Amino acid sequence: MQSQLPGLSLPHGRFFGQGTVRREAAGFLLDCLQPTVPERELHRHTHDEAHFVMLLAGRYITSARGGAAECAVGTLIYNPPGTTHRDRFRGLDGRFFTLSVPQAAIALCDGLAADGGARQLGHRARRFAYALVQECGRWEHDSDHVAGAVATELLADAISSEETHTSPPAWLRLALEWLEDVGGSPDIATLAAVCGVHPVHLARVFRRHLGCAPAEYARRARLRRAMALLRDTRATVAEIALRCGYADQSHFNRQFVSAYRVTPAAYRRRSL
């Protein structure tokens, strides 16, 4: 988009930028973009639906509360539904990441929808956003589940202050048992239904007690099962990959090497 009229309204997933990467996970849209409209040509406009913006490169001007007007790289901004502003880049050499939030998620989060306007978020939320940027760049068979879980955690972090409960709830053990038993990568909505809690609540509590997202835990559980099968069975590497829920042997090899810095075949030889 090369020009912009005053009063323009942007629908879900639309920004003044050219996309380099677009992913979709659990109803969220993840985009890596470059600006396309010069500062002098960009007027006030409205975003129909909620979204997050993270500055990856360049100079960005914002009216969101909570920080400097000219943002540093790494700044993360939440814009609620109906945000009207003139946030813009100085020049066209910037890069930014956006997370467009599905309306169904916002409808369940009253505190986020009516929090008083756009705001810049803190370190914890930025960590989730960086994880999403990284997942976009290495998208694999189960990345939609991982990204959906992390996006839900980012949403949860934006709507609530840190909770002080120290004891894990009873449903958390059920979640862990289910993740250990199920093959593949469950989406967070399915896991929340199993546990009888809301996905946003599940994501926040799971991260607080386990230090990772449910899909990340499921990845590690699959790798632990695979390691046991490599040690204790004569099944081929391809058969083990299938048993453990991987799309194919190459996907299994990549994740195994990423986690343990050794191939499954080499690990098997060392374990004999």
Supply database-style keywords.
272 residues, alpha+beta, Jelly Rolls, Arc Repressor Mutant, subunit A, six-stranded antiparallel beta sheet, three-stranded mixed beta sheet, 12 strands, elongated
Q: How would you describe what is shown here?
A:
- By secondary structure, the chain is of the alpha+beta class.
- Among the domains are: 8-137, Jelly Rolls, CATH 2.60.120.10; 222-271, Arc Repressor Mutant, subunit A, CATH 1.10.10.
- Helix content is 44%, strand content 19%.
- The chain is built from 11 helices and 12 strands.
- The chain has helices spanning 103-107, 110-113, 123-137, 143-159, 170-181, 188-195, 199-210, 214-232, 237-243, 249-260, 264-271; strands spanning 8-10, 17-25, 28-35, 45-47, 51-57, 60-61, 70-71, 76-79, 83-85, 88-89, 95-100, 119-120.
- Strand 6 (60-61) and strand 7 form a beta hairpin.
- The relative contact order is 0.11.
**Number of beta strands:** 12
Second CATH tier, the architecture of one domain: Sandwich
Low-confidence stretches: 161-165
Order of helices and strands: EEEEEEEEEEEHHEHHHHHHHHH
Question: Rg from C-alpha positions?
Answer: 21 Å
CATH topology of one domain: Jelly Rolls
Distance between the termini: 60 Å
Question: How would you describe the shape?
Answer: elongated
Mean pLDDT: 86
The CATH superfamily of one domain appears as Jelly Rolls
Q: Characterize the biggest β-sheet.
A: 6 strands, antiparallel
Number of helices: 11
Helix content: 40-55%
Give me the secondary-structure category: alpha+beta
Q: What strand order characterises the main sheet?
A: 2-3-11-5-8-12
- CATH class membership of one domain: Mainly Beta
* Beta-strand proportion: 15-25%
Protein name: AraC family transcriptional regulator
Organism: Luteimonas galliterrae
Keywords: DNA-binding, Transcription, Transcription regulation
InterPro entries: AraC_XylS_family_regulators, Homeodomain-like_sf, HTH_AraC, HTH_AraC-typ_CS, RmlC-like_jellyroll, RmlC_Cupin_sf, Tscrpt_reg_AraC-type_HTH
